Amino acid sequence: xxxxxxxxxxxxxxxxxxxxxxxxxxxxxxxxxxxxxxxxxxxxxxxxxxxxxxxxxxxxxxxxxxxxxxxxxxxxxxxxxxxxxxxxxxxxxxxxx
Length: 97
Fold this sequence. Notes:
Blueprint: E1 2-8, E2 18-21, H1 23-27, E3 36-46, H2 71-86, E4 91-94
Parallel strand pairs: 3-4
Antiparallel strand pairs: 1-3, 2-3
């Protein structure tokens, strides 16, 4: 069972619920060019690999990750998520296959 926050490409409707990934950090793991956002008010829980995961390329059909966020940046969304969870502002979504 895996629990994870989503990374989205569209600007979120409520900017208090997401954090933009800085461009310098996006390029390191190989995310597409353009802004990406980490949604910190919703977590998805599923059995790995899960219905919403898509391989990163046809050349790597079993690879679903783009890499790891640097620890210095990771603390920012983690701390936001923890604060929102303590305030009961996080929604858990069970993703079924």
